[in-house]
Design goal:
alpha+beta, six-stranded antiparallel beta sheet, four-stranded antiparallel beta sheet, about 30% strand
């Protein structure tokens, strides 16, 4: 929605805020040329996407390129994104290291007029609306609350199959809760997807809405 877009925090600014709370974000960088993209890849597989208020659905708009590792493919993808973005100005092109595999979850936050900041945990990433497997708590939360949020999910055994992974998610939930409480200017946030992989996690897509003037 236009009002939200006008108050949306810049992606890199949002990523830096998450990092201040020791929340992992996938390696990301704005790129301004083919050479930038190739240099960022440095042999790793990357994703490139256009960030624009006019392209809210990146896949439908054709402004996201996945699984790029060869130099020629990266250069071709960059040119194609520039061409498809002609009507999306102003825009930025974001490159990210690609995470293969893993389990997608969503962690969200909102501001309720009665209860204040509210935290959400859900399974499924893009399928969160399909599965409707979510739990919510009013912030701030403690370790007990975080554990209960995980326990309430039907997908608990998928996202937290052992004590180590459960503790990791509990710690993450408490960090996001603290961020929400300490940054009153943030009215809403979505870390979706946040990918659990290889014994750790990375936030990939970030959406932070700031309070209006």
């Amino acid at each position: 929605m236009s009002d939200e877009n006008a108050n949306m925090m810049d992606y890199i600014e949002a990523a830096n805020l998450l990092k201040k709370y020791s929340i992992r974000v996938v390696d990301s960088k704005y790129i301004e040329s083919e050479d930038d993209a190739v240099s960022f890849s440095n042999g790793d597989t990357i994703v490139m996407k256009v960030l624009s208020d006019k392209a809210l659905h990146k896949t439908k708009s054709g402004v996201i390129k996945l699984d790029l590792s060869k130099e020629d493919d990266i250069r071709t993808a960059y040119k194609d994104l520039i061409e498809k973005s002609a009507d999306l100005k102003p825009y930025k092109i974001l490159a990210q290291k690609m995470i293969k595999g893993g389990i997608e979850i969503i962690i969200g936050g909102n501001t309720d007029p009665s209860f204040g900041k509210v935290l959400l945990l859900g399974f499924g990433g893009i399928y969160v609306e399909t599965f409707k497997d979510v739990s919510m708590r009013v912030c701030p939360i403690n370790e007990f609350d975080a554990g209960n949020m995980i326990s309430e999910l039907k997908s608990k055994r998928i996202i937290a199959p052992d004590e180590k992974s459960e503790n990791m998610i509990k710690d993450l939930l408490m960090k996001v809760s603290k961020l929400l409480v300490e940054n009153d200017n943030i009215s809403e946030l979505d870390l979706n997807p946040l990918i659990l992989h290889d014994g750790t996690y990375d936030a990939v897509d970030l959406r932070f809405i700031l309070k209006g003037e």
